[in-house]
């Protein structure tokens, strides 16, 4: 097909109201041609003139009304927003970054700059949202036990005074069970993975990996199961060059501590 014919076919959805002026700058030409069209969103989807909708569309199932959350980045660097609707509550397997895997994240297309805000649209069945800066995960935000996502959320580095409670990470296997909060400070000298474990009525233990990597010197607030009949405990697995793990169990009378300093075994 001749290039001129292809260009006219591409422009067919737009109602031209201005004379066509050809240019070697195809994106610029397309943008000029789309000025004043009756359906500007069609041209916006081509990516030449920008979008009339500033929200980030991170939806994989457009047939179901998405959730909309206004994300404010109070972190020091740019962040990527990743929605997860494929978390396995039985095995505790989280979403992964490899888009070829069946349990991959649904990534938003653009980064959110430090001290900037942007509304993101995510699938209605999203289980948690991961916020990533570079190759490091900052924090995970799990769907509240109320079943309703808040209209807005501020991303802060775990442990910052202003965002400690708001950034509490959900580590319960059963999010309907009673809970308590623990502020964990990593003093182990190594990064550690944080997992919550508890048993079901048959005595079988289930695991939920809730913090992929808690860096040495950082702290995070986690929400854990406080029902002692569920035999809950927290597992800290050290990452290389560290090795081994540490388990935190509740006191039979007082339950879990409100704060805990993680140290190598």
Structure in words:
The protein is mostly beta strands and 265 residues long. The protein is 9% helix and 34% strand. It is built from 3 helices and 16 strands. The strands form 4 sheets. A 4-stranded mixed sheet has the order 1-5-2-8, with no helix packed on it. The protein has a 4-stranded antiparallel sheet with strand order 4-3-6-7, with no helix packed on it. It has a 4-stranded mixed sheet with strand order 9-13-10-16, with no helix packed on it. A hairpin with a 6-residue loop joins β14 and β15. The radius of gyration is 24 Å and the shape is globular. 28% of the residues are buried.
Which features characterize this protein?
single chain; 265 residues; mainly beta; four-stranded mixed β-sheet; four-stranded antiparallel β-sheet; disordered N terminus
Q: What is the H-and-E element order?
A: HHHEEEEEEEEEEEEEEEE
Instruction: Give the N-to-C terminal Cα separation.
Output: 69 Å
- Per DSSP E runs of 2 or more residues, the count of β-strands stands at 16
* Mean of residue pLDDT values: 79
Strand numbers in spatial order across the main sheet = 1-5-2-8
Helix coverage percent? under 10%
* Radius of gyration based on Cα positions: 24 Å
Give a short account of the largest sheet: 4 strands, mixed
The total of helices stands at 3
Briefly note the structural class of the backbone. mainly beta
Task: Categorize the overall geometry.
Answer: globular
> pLDDT below 50 for ≥5 consecutive residues: which ranges?
3-8, 10-28, 34-51, 161-166
Strand content: 25-35%
């Amino acid at each position: 097909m001749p290039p001129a014919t292809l260009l006219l076919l591409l422009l067919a959805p737009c109602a031209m109201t201005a004379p066509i002026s050809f240019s070697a700058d195809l994106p610029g030409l397309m943008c000029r041609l789309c000025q004043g069209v009756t359906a500007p969103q069609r041209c916006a989807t081509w990516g030449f003139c920008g979008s009339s909708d500033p929200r980030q569309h991170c939806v994989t199932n457009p047939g179901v009304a998405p959730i909309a959350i206004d994300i404010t980045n109070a972190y020091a660097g740019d962040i990527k927003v990743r929605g997860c609707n494929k978390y396995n509550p039985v095995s505790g397997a989280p979403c992964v970054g490899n888009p070829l895997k069946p349990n991959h994240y649904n990534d938003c297309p653009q980064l959110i700059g430090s001290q900037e805000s942007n509304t993101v649209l995510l699938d209605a069945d999203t289980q948690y949202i991961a916020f990533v800066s570079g190759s490091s995960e900052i924090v995970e935000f799990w769907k509240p036990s109320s079943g309703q996502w808040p209209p807005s959320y501020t991303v802060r580095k775990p442990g910052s005074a202003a965002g400690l409670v708001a950034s509490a990470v959900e580590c319960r296997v059963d999010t309907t069970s009673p809970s308590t909060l623990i502020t964990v400070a990593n003093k182990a000298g190594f990064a550690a993975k944080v997992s919550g474990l508890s048993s079901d009525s048959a005595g079988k233990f289930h695991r939920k990996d809730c913090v992929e990597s808690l860096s040495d010197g950082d702290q995070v607030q986690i929400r854990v199961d406080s029902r002692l009949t569920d035999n809950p405990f927290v597992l800290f697995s050290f990452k290389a060059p560290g090795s081994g793990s540490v388990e935190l169990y509740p006191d039979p009378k007082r339950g879990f501590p409100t704060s805990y300093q993680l140290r190598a075994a």
